[in-house]
Amino acid sequence: MTSNTKLSYTDKLPLTCTRTGTCCHGKMVRLNPWELAKLAEAKGITPKEFRNLYCDFGGIQLRFDGDPGWKDLASCSQYKPGFGCKVHSGRPLVCRLYPLGRQKQGEKKHYIHQGNDFPCLEGCPDVVKLPSMTVSQYIEGQGAQDYEAVQDSYLELMQDIADGAFSLLLESGLSESGDKKTLPMWRKMGDEKPEALSKRLGVQWIDRLMLHELSDHSNDYLSFTESHFASLQSAFEEKLSKLESLDDYSEASVLLMGLALHLSRGLGAEPSDLATHWIATAKTHGASE
Ligand code: SF4
């Protein structure tokens, strides 16, 4: 469905969190660094504190370790029975869009939902009393536009980091040397569980990737992403300035690819699919596995 799609009677979407519903139980909520920072702001703590208390895998996933509720499924760490979301003002994109999902290919984006009826009808049947609205009205009402723009920026960053891994492999002489260890590591990381990949990347790089403080203008997502990308760029440049041997280039290519894959998971992508795609691309440019 597009943003102009009119939602039908049975498709009505909740204007606000209805406190007893399906959306905060048994889900997997992935996070980008802006979402992590906004959650922390809503909680009144730093992104690092929020990450350490309420997230898994270095901050790419919200922990669902609350009391079981709807269908006996565990609730989100930010869900309070009888109240709802404790971080409503900073809730992430997936929560703002629920029960819609978002797919983006190139410049085109689509909104989707699973099944014939919205799950809200089962968990929060009161939604049928809400006024009908278009998808774009719903998105606006949820304040999701900035979060969508940030998500797209981080998707671009993910591609830029992967491009860096490609350059180190293909433009340093590494691939031409007959290297056969870099691509297998890309594949291994693509198949790795998130906890193993975050451990492999190390605390310092995971922190650089996921933790960035909001400025005083906390709703200015452009300045947030710009300053975060600049600080990552400077860390990459420092790393690259120390490379000497082909082994160093391989290790740096693996690091950048691992960071791109880890970030991709936080953005809702499937790292194994991406790794397979990127390995195939590298091979068409002469790299070997
Ligand atoms: S962040 Fe809030 S809205 Fe999102 S799943 Fe957790 S409790 Fe629900």
Could you characterize what this model shows?
There is one protein chain. Helix content is 49%, strand content 6%. The protein has helices at 33-43, 47-54, 93-97, 120-123, 135-141, 145-170, 182-191, 194-201, 203-210, 221-240, 246-266, 271-284; strands spanning 55-56, 61-62, 79-80, 84-85, 101-105, 108-112. It has a two-stranded antiparallel ribbon with strand order 1-2. A two-stranded antiparallel sheet has the order 3-4. A two-stranded antiparallel sheet has the order 5-6. Helix 1 (33-43) crosses helix 2 and helix 7 (182-191) runs antiparallel to helix 12 (271-284). The chain starts with 32 loop residues before the first helix and ends in a 5-residue tail after the last helix. It binds iron/sulfur cluster. Iron/sulfur cluster is lined by residues 23-24, 29, 76, 78-79, 85, 87, 91, 95. Iron/sulfur cluster (SF4) binds at residues 23-24, 29, 76, 78-79, 85, 87, 91, 95.
